[in-house]
Amino acid sequence: MPIIERIELMQVDLAPKTTRQDAIQSFVTQETPVVRIVCDDGSEGIGYSYTIGTGGSSVMALLKDHLAPMLIGKSPVEVEAHWRAMLFHTHATAVGAITSIALAAIDTALWDWRARQADLPLWRLLGGAKSQVPCYTTEGGWLQLPVDTLVKQTVAAKEQGFLGAKLKVGKPRGAEDVARLSAVREAVGSEFELMVDANQAFTISEALRRADALAEIGLAWLEEPMPADDVAGHARLNARSRIPIAVGESLYSPGQFGDYLRLDACSIVQVDVGRIGGITPWLKVAHMAECMNVAVSPHFLMELHVSLCCAVPNSAWVEHIPQLDEVTTQTMVIRDGHAQAPTQAGLGIEWDWAEIEKRSLVRHTVR
């Protein structure tokens, strides 16, 4: 049985292709920890995760000093055992973003190894529920854009074949959000799906007001209306809102999703593989939501989430927001508005190693 001989760690920073601004922050850069697990027989698995501008150095230190050394000399087969051992080893810093992001980078590499060894695409190894998933775009909906640009870019997205688009909300006055979205809805028609994202900007009173004001526009969901730790507030809102409430990108453990689902505090689960701690806990959350008849529409990381969405039956959408183009040799395939499941074994991501080597700001090898 192969044994893990060394783990290579790299951090690659990727600038967004366009200015990305929401109600509370700007997306400055994607700090991308890349993990390469190499076994004594030459087999390997590649994984990654991300931050949006801060914390990358802390993730790399946690990987180098604490997590990667735990796997040296171990078999890569027992992914669940490794994930739990690493979780308990970092108990003093969990549940938290830095620990979950570090766990995700290693866990995705282990699953990549397993799928490659099985000579299967990841989505088939994990269940193979479907071969494609509807796709919406986020790249044209940023909050700083004037209304005419917002309309123009959303119309262009429809013409490009996307089935929906997500727009940011959270202008100082609710009437501004309504006016912007009404203009877009008029331009794209009633059949094109529109989603909105508040990035946790509202109080419960403001969330109630804005959900009511936006209801007539016919939105697919209202995403992160309030701080993610306000589960009770989301339960109140979800009970009254005519727009489905979506949460998940700021939750970092299956237990946190369990709280939302038990309290009926959301209608759509947006579990992010890079923030939940990897594929192992992502699957737990997706199947928990499935058992409660709740749809999964994951946040970000489209190149990896297309495989996970195709693995489970309750996935509804993949979010198109490209960020790996500069360090990969192919992009996610979209056909008739649907993201297509990869055909190659493993995660389905073809890395450009020459570009990764050139862009690596930090490098470590753990033996």
From TrEMBL:
GO terms for molecular function: hydro-lyase activity; magnesium ion binding. Its EC number is 4.2.1.156. It is an enzyme of class 4 (lyase). It holds the Pfam family MR_MLE_N. PROSITE patterns: MR_MLE_2. Its cofactor is Mg(2+). Gene3D superfamilies: Enolase-like C-terminal domain (3.20.20.120), Enolase-like, N-terminal domain (3.30.390.10). SMART domains: MR_MLE. Residues 147-244 form the Mandelate racemase/muconate lactonizing enzyme C-terminal domain. GO terms for biological process: amino acid catabolic process; carbohydrate catabolic process. Keywords: Lyase, Magnesium, Metal-binding. This is L-talarate/galactarate dehydratase. It comes from Pararobbsia alpina. The keyword Lyase applies. InterPro entries: Enolase-like_C_sf (IPR036849), Enolase-like_N (IPR029017), Enolase_C-like (IPR029065), Mandel_Rmase/mucon_lact_enz_CS (IPR018110), Mandelate_racemase_C (IPR013342), Mandelate_racemase_N_dom (IPR013341), RHMD-like (IPR046945). It comes from the Bacteria. CDD domains: MR_like.
